[in-house]
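Review form for a predicted model. The reviewer records the input and the model, then writes brief findings.
Reviewer: anonymous (R2)
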Amino acid sequence: MIKKWYFYAGLIVIITFLSLGFKPFSLKAKPWFITEKTDGAEYLFPSEEEDDYPNISVPYTGNHFIGFKEAVAFKESQGKYRKVNSIGYMGKYQFGSKTLRSVGIHNEKAFLKNPALQEKAFVALLSKNKWILRREIAKYEGKTINGVEITESGILAAAHLGGAGSVKNFFKNNGNRHFRDAYGTSLRSYMKAFGGYDLSYIEADSNATIND
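Model under review:
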């Protein structure tokens, strides 16, 4: 009986020692994939951090269309679909009434309540501006004007800020005409900040509209 007691007591001591001797470790890992909900659909795409891909030959998603649109959205509204600024620009991408009508949207209240519609409106406007500015893109892409390296995405971002006409004037004046919006944001700053994204996904279309 005493031997059994010694055996079980010894077993308890060993188990206790082993339990205290090994501490659980936590593995810190960067997420290789992140999900994001923007237009009612859920996107699954790789990390936006370029350093997360040291030895793997995969595209850097942050430079693709989804990276472009989210960067523009954050600058415009911090990504808020319901935001209306002090001069009446609306939604995640801050559309004005005139611009909304140009892509076929006439119900502004419905537009503000519909994330999917806002995403479609942004793509439609990009398509329209890409067609309007197709000659400027072909002529100036890759050149440096007034200290700004010109890219297609920079041109289209600038058109989103100030309209395609302002972008045309920028090039006509060799970058010396400094358009600024009501809050003082310059066309040049958008052209620089949003340059280098791959927008080959966007097709140039003079009649790009959507049905709301």
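Findings: Residues 22-61 have pLDDT under 50 and may be disordered.
Further findings: The beta strands are 33-37, 42-46, 144-145, 148-149.
Recommendation: see findings above.
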